[in-house]
Amino acid sequence: MNIGLITSYVIAGIILIAILSMNMSVSSSSNEITLSQVTRERAETISDIMSNDIQKIGYNRKSKTNPVLTVAEGKKIQFRSNIDNSTDNSVEIVTWEFTNTAVTSTPNPSDRVLKRTVRDASSGSIISTTPFKSGVISFRINYYKKYGSKRSDSLSTPVTGSALNNIKQLYIALKIQSKEKVYNGSNGHYVTSIWEKRFSPPNLEF
Question: Which residues pair with 3 in a beta bridge?
C-alpha cells in the first residue's frame, strides 16, 4: 500500500470539496445580489407611481376636488384627482387596492396582486387598470388626523363618512419579495425589499 499516494488523494479530495463549496457560496451570493437589485427596482417602480398619485389627492388645476377621499381602508384607498392635469379640469377616481388575488406565474406563494385603477369621475368608465404582479406580499395604509402622530395613533380603518375629512397624513408600507428563492445549502429564502413613506398631500391640509 502506497501511503504517500493515498495521502495525496485524500488531500486532493479535501481541496476539491473546498473549491466546490467556495464556488457554491460565491454563486449563491451573486444570485442574492442580483435578486436584491431586481427586487429594489420593482419596489421603486411601484413607489414612484404611487408617490405621484398620493401627492395629487384632491388636486385640480384651480381648486381641490369635492369630495377628496372616498375610501380609506387598510389595504385600499380611493380618491378624486385631476391626475393627468388636463386643462378641461376633468376629474378621475383613482384606486389603489391590495387584492387577495394570488400571482400564479411565480413560485412565491405569498405573491398578491396590487392593483391601480383610474376611472372617469363623470361616467364611471374605466380609463386604465394596472395590476402589479411584482412580488408584492404586503401593503398597508395608516391614516392620521394630526401631523407627526406616532404610527400607533393611526385612525381605525375603515375611515368613513365625515371622518374622512379629518385625515391629514398617510403612512404607506410596501413589502416586495423576489420571485425565486436564494439557496444556501438545503435552505432557501426569498429576498425582501421594504418601502415605506409618510405623506402629507397638500389638499388634505385645509
Answer: none
23 lies in some domain = no
Q: How far is CA 119 from CA 15, 29, 83, 95, in A?
A: 65, 44, 11, 8
pTM score, whole prediction = 0.82
Rounded distance, CA 190 to CA 38, Å? 12
- pLDDT tens for residues 134-184? 889 999 999 999 988 888 899 999 999 999 999 999 999 999 998 888 776
Q: Residues 48-92: pLDDT tens digits? A: 999 999 999 999 988 899 999 999 999 999 999 999 999 998 999
Task: Please name the residues in contact with 202: beta carbons below 8 A apart, sequence gap of 6 or more.
Answer: 55, 59
Domain that residue 134 falls in: 30-204
Q: How many domains does the chain have?
A: 1
